Amino acid sequence: MDQLQQQVEGLNLNAIAEFPNCFPDVNPLDVYRAHLSNVLTEITGVDKNIIYPALSWTQSLDKGDLVLAAPALRLPKGGPKPDQIVQEWAAKFPENDPLFEKPHVHSYFMSFFFRGAPLVSSILPTILQKGHKFGTNPSLGLKDPKDPSKGQKKIIVEFSSPNIAKPFHAGHLRSTIIGGFLGNLYEGAGWDVTRINYLGDWGKQYGLLALAFEKFGDEKALEQDPINHLFQLYVRINTEMTEEKEQIAKRKEAGEDVTEAEANSLDEQARRYFKKMTDRDEKALAMWKKFRDLSIVRYKQTYARLNIHFDEYSGESQVSESDMAHIGHQLEEKKISKEDNGAQLIDFSELVPGKEGKRLEKPLVRKRDGTALYLTRDISELLARHAKYNFDKMIYVVASAQDLHLKQLFKIIELLGHKDIADKCQHINFGLVLGMSTRKGTVKFLDDILRDVADKMHETMRKNEDKYNQVENPEAVADVLGISSVMVQDMTGKRINNYTFNMDQMTSFEGDTGPYLQYAHARVCSIKRKAGLSDEEIASADFSLLTEPHAVNIVRLLAQWPDVFSNTLRTLEPTTVLAYLFKMTHALSSSYDVLRIMGSEPAVLKARMALYEAAHIVLGNGMRLLGLSPVERY
Length: 634
Ligand code: ARG
Fold this sequence. Notes:
Blueprint: H1 2-7, H2 28-44, H3 48-54, E1 66-69, H4 82-92, E2 104-106, E3 109-112, H5 116-130, E4 154-158, H6 170-188, E5 192-199, H7 204-216, H8 219-224, H9 226-253, H10 259-263, H11 266-278, H12 282-305, E6 312-315, H13 321-333, E7 338-340, E8 343-345, H14 354-359, E9 364-366, H15 374-389, E10 393-397, H16 403-415, H17 419-422, E11 425-428, E12 433-434, E13 437-438, E14 441-442, H18 446-462, H19 465-470, H20 474-492, E15 499-500, H21 503-506, H22 514-531, H23 535-539, H24 549-571, H25 574-589, H26 602-626
Parallel strand pairs: 4-5, 4-10, 5-6, 10-11, 12-15
Antiparallel strand pairs: 1-3, 2-3, 7-8, 8-9, 13-14
The structure holds arginine (ARG).
Arginine (ARG) binds at residues 158, 161, 163, 198, 200, 378, 396, 398.
């Protein structure tokens, strides 16, 4: 805001009244919108508080920077037609406005273009000065925007949540990518973020796994590679169990007495083992705890490669049995659940009127043997989290295959009398990844995929020997590029869309891919290295030398970044950020030939360097928001 005031004569900042959602200190475009609203109020007589929110973005730069549709101003009926009135308004728009050129008119739209010089000389210093913070807006997460001492709003993001001893499948990968991004997003918006990993680590199958380890487990293999070893045990014991079941069924058919066989079966042993676990038998729990702890150590290593950490490794095992018993009583007392053949279920069609009640089906909350289910644990866990964190919002990042499960969960919380809590919860869902496989076969674990993609990127890098030799740690760079490939492909479409995992496409340098985005970032970095100017020198540039349309257009895009950030808080879609970043990279790549650095006069070189440095900052900020690690060179 100061920058604009210093640079733009005639800009009446006092007239930039307090608009709601106007943050002139973090978003320079808010100053533009406020100023324009004031000017248009004079011309149209419409309240500026109606104009301000009606100023919208354009699809592309050739359509202007802001656009106003006359019907959005709720004009009184019976007056001139919107097409005609915008003509009149445009004619009255001041010739010498400090920030805007005279508007263009098309049908009932008025499009506004920023004047180049004031834009360039206010946006670039703002970006250089704010650096990593440019775009974020910490006041959005304040409990009371007018009184920061009241503190930040609290959000829980639950994501990733794989199941121990089972494959870390595509659903977990997407949850990890999207959840990591959402955590960063809310942090940038000033919320107090807690990241929770809700592990699948409880149930009869973990009793079975312990049995498997007793039979054919290997201490050493477990320590070295817990994820794979446990998975092997899991597959082996499940195969044995299935065979055993078939045999027993056959003998039964043949009229044999199978009572003893059933009592000694793996299934029954697993049930007994798990019973001991729920009774908190120390010996039974020790084994399970070791599996869990070792798996978490491994998960943490993989998450670190993806720039992700969790504040809490919770999980189905952590849900208290007594809490669940207590909630069970409440469900019965309030007649939410009912007995059915010894079990307890919730028949939503009797509780929720109309189609919705039918759609919610009839989930079980207690089995006949008294044990709890996935849904029961989620009910307890949700309430326990609310008691522990008193959150303002909680997000569950879970595949859309569990849409029904989460709808049931939120509805039960509401029926229990906690509509306020249910309203704070949101399911962020996403579609399937089709055909995910490594080059050697179908994929089981995330690590296999990441290794494979990194190998592929390493091969590609080696093809350019000169460049390859300049990269300090090519393996590490290949790893980052591989991860970027996977993540960018995942974030390209809307979350709800399914997509096909395509290794060749994602690792290509052609098109809007991860490697291309990294290349664009590395390229602006290399310009800075070659120019050899310090940050102080760059900041002292004479911005008025940047008059070429290519330069102004890049600045127009850079100016949008804070808006893109706040819009992303509305869409909660990684693609909102990604699409913007690719627009930036395209504008940059078409400008390198026009806005040369090498061979330019020192003053021009410095000004262009300031432009590229600002682009470097915004690209990096966007990439980090998505969870990517921008590379400096490759
Ligand atoms: N572990 C579950 C699965 O792999 C996902 C957990 C989702 N979160 C939840 N609170 N239910 O399907």
